[in-house]
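Postdoc handover notes: sequence design on the structure in folder B. Input tokens:
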């Protein structure tokens, strides 16, 4: 489904209680038909053929100019195809790789035209001429009812005009931001990528002759290479006419360095502008509670979101202010994200949540190490004097002591106990930073990251532990010649710890997800990398804003954890009825691995070591749009429930129940797609009650109170047969119920322990739509833990809350509407 046509909607909640239900057949959904203006066939074909004839003459002149300039390979021109205002353009059919014809960019104009820019190699204009001619002269083969239509009708009738493309046609940012032709500016240039030609090298050669400066660094993807270019639009347009290398143009992303190079007065102007655009959250909004070094709330951007009464401290004589310089920038990120984006935005800035602070660290009065768990618990109790608030606890404080190596510590167990509500039945969402590698070891990146384990208490089962990746990978070569980014774009951040040394154990996979953590740079003349370019960091609110400047850089896994807390708060603000288990589940559920993450652990045969991927990056990078919203072709269903895993029969503790979710399912829409490949993602989140200690940990199920698993009905089995299979699997941990005899393919496949460790489980199934259509039942069932292995503790009658998240994705079919109709939910279209 074209991006411009995808509608986004709120996620749907399963209204059914988790039990056995007859399946309700959903009303069929339909894919969105292409919207076409009525055409006179002969007249429309003649008009487009006339435009193509004009293009042929101009294209011949342009090709001749290219060859005169010495460009003797890859010659071609750019064409722009426009739809009628308010109508569709079948732009997928404009791309034809066998002929070297490449769709470069698609945008929507201010007058609601879809505009596609296509590179056409020399001699290949006949591709479009032939299709227009066939539309004019030929009909399709008759259908069963005898009806026919013009060949290529959808493509040709969707085209209103064809012309040689100007440079503006490659611009995919806001049209109003397009620079004037003679303005010397920076451009983010997305180059085409080819196995036959080095477009980057050829572009460098042409650019040098046209007063364009190209950055030494580039970011490479499967079919694009991105560089920064300085120069005028007029010169860039001339180079584009000579060399068909550019696929897309954007403004360079505003970096933290743009603001950090300002003086304090200039920074304050930007800060005041954002503060003037801020829309405060409502009183019932959720809170991010920072367990850190305190916060200096007098900052212009923090005061509206953090009340004096919400500043707390572990020891009264410490005060609540931030003297350690860490809590205040955490607050800025938790409130606004990377301030680079917020300051550079336009229009109102609606705040979705508020802040709280508990000062738990004071460098002048350090805690004894063994007290950290108690300090954390007590600090949580301090802030819960307002028990009615929905709050996310965010803590980036950790210890690099590696003795635990993933095993539960007193600190991590205290976090697990707080999250599970073991003492007070209050479930809490806790977000932890994975911890940072030693700065002195970063010259050995990434090897040092793979041996530096997650810092205590980041191994906590129930916490959302956040590592770091980075998209900040371009160094300003004019200011810092010879320096290059240490980490590649979309790869592991230099500071991020991993659980690679925990492999081949049953210890949880950590981190759970990764967020932006900034980057570093290196130079061949220096042994150690450095934070030399502020553009490699995030921007936030410094603690010393009153004495210096109101903006400064911030990064590493602390910033990543604060970003995760912000995302969680935004999610909770939108869906106030979610449980902490569900918030954690949706963030993990929306995460994706980037190409560099997968490539890092792919062998020469193309096999991915998913255990390594997950112990380095968790489930990947959460995508905010997917965290917050479903789409026409991407339906997310949320089920929240509880289960009593065990019961006592005479002197034995046995299993009590499984929960069967008969979900509202877009069966007819999926069946209509038949062999189309679709995906099903399922995430199950729950909290365990901890039982720490070396003796307990040595027992297979000693630490966790219980485990939960999910299983999906297969297309070929009945609901009764499914239940029978799962009941047997529930009592055998080694039984691989998700994969034995399974059709389709699970990403975390057979033999993986990754689907059973920890207290959050997520997996992706890929198969045919027809197969998925018959899979509308998902079971949640228990496995062993100390609740049933230690009956004398009388924990066997406890209940476990859980969240089950299910997402179905199709290439383009609307599967959201049928399910919304089944559960009688109004269809809301989000902007």
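Designed sequence:
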């Amino acid at each position: 489904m074209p991006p411009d046509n995808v509608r986004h909607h709120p996620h749907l909640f399963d209204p059914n209680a988790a039990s056995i239900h007859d399946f309700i057949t959903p009303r069929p959904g339909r894919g969105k038909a292409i919207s076409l203006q009525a055409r006179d066939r002969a007249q429309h074909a003649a008009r487009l053929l006339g435009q193509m004839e004009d293009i042929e003459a101009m294209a011949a002149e342009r090709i001749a100019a290219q060859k005169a300039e010495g460009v003797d390979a890859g010659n071609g021109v750019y064409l722009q195809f426009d739809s009628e205002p308010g109508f569709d353009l079948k732009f997928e059919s404009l791309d034809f790789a066998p002929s070297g014809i490449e769709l470069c960019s698609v945008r929507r104009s201010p007058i609601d035209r879809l505009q596609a820019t296509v590179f056409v190699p020399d001699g290949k204009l006949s591709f479009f001429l032939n299709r227009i001619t066939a539309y004019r002269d030929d009909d399709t083969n008759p259908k069963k009812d005898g009806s026919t239509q013009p060949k290529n009708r959808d493509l040709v009738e969707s085209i209103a005009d064809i012309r040689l493309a100007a440079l503006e046609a490659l611009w995919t940012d806001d049209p109003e931001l397009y620079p004037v032709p003679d303005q010397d500016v920076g451009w983010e240039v997305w180059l085409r990528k080819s196995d036959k030609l080095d477009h980057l090298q050829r572009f460098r050669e042409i650019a040098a002759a046209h007063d364009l400066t190209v950055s030494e660094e580039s970011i490479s993807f499967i079919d694009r290479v991105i560089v920064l270019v300085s120069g005028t639009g007029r010169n860039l347009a001339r180079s584009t006419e000579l060399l068909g290398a550019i696929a897309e143009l954007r403004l360079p992303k505003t970096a933290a360095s743009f603001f950090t190079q300002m003086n304090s007065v200039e920074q304050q102007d930007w800060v005041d502008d954002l503060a003037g655009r801020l829309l405060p959250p409502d009183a019932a909004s959720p809170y991010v509670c920072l367990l850190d070094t305190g916060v200096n709330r007098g900052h212009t951007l923090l005061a509206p979101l953090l009340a004096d009464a919400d500043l707390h401290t572990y020891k009264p004589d410490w005060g609540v202010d931030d003297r350690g310089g860490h809590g205040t920038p955490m607050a800025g990120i938790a409130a606004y994200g990377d301030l680079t984006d917020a300051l550079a935005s336009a229009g109102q800035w609606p705040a979705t949540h508020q802040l709280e602070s508990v000062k738990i660290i004071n460098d002048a009065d350090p805690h004894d190490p063994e007290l950290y768990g108690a300090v954390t618990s007590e600090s949580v109790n301090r802030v819960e004097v307002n028990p009615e608030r929905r709050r996310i606890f965010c803590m980036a404080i950790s210890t690099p002591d590696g003795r635990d190596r993933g095993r539960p510590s007193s600190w991590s167990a205290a976090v697990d106990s707080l999250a599970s509500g073991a003492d007070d039945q209050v479930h809490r969402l806790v977000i932890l930073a994975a911890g940072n590698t030693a700065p002195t070891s970063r010259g050995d990146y990434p090897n040092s990251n793979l041996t530096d384990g997650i810092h205590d208490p980041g191994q906590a089962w129930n916490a959302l532990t956040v590592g770091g990746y980075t998209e900040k990978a371009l160094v300003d070569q004019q200011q810092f010649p010879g320096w290059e980014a240490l980490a590649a774009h979309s790869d592991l951040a230099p500071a991020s710890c991993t659980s690679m040394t925990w492999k081949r154990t049953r210890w949880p996979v950590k981190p759970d997800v990764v967020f932006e953590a900034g980057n570093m740079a290196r130079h061949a003349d220096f042994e150690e990398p450095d934070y030399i370019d502020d553009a490699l960091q995030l921007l936030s609110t410094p603690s010393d804003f009153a004495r210096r400047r109101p903006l400064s850089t911030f990064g590493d896994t602390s910033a990543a954890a604060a970003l995760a807390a912000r995302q969680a708060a935004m999610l909770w603000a939108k869906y106030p009825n979610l449980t902490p288990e569900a918030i954690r589940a949706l963030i993990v559920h929306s995460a994706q691995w980037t190409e560099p993450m997968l490539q890092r652990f792919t062998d020469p045969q193309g096999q991915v070591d998913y255990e390594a991927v997950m112990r380095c990056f968790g489930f990947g990078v959460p995508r905010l749009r997917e965290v917050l919203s479903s789409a026409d072709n991407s339906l997310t269903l949320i089920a929240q429930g509880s289960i009593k895993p065990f019961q006592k029969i005479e002197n034995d503790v046995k299993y009590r129940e499984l929960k069967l979710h008969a979900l509202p399912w877009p069966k007819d829409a999926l069946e209509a797609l038949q062999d189309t490949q679709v995906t099903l993602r399922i995430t199950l989140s729950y909290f365990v009650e901890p039982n720490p200690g070396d003796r307990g940990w040595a027992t297979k199920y000693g630490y966790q109170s219980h485990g939960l698993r999910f299983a999906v009905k297969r297309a070929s089995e009945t609901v009764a047969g499914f239940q029978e299979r799962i009941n047997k699997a529930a009592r055998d941990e080694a039984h691989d119920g998700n994969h034995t005899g399974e059709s389709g393919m699970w990403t975390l496949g057979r033999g993986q322990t990754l689907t059973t460790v920890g207290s959050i489980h997520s997996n992706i199934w890929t198969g045919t739509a027809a197969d998925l259509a018959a899979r509308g039942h998902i079971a949640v069932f228990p496995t062993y833990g100390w609740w049933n292995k230690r009956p004398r503790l009388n924990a066997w009658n406890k209940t476990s809350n859980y969240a089950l998240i299910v997402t179905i994705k199709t290439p383009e079919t609307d599967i959201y509407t049928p399910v919304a109709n089944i559960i009688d939910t109004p269809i809301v279209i989000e902007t």
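Context for whoever picks this up: The chain has a mean pLDDT of 87. Don't rerun without checking with the PI first.
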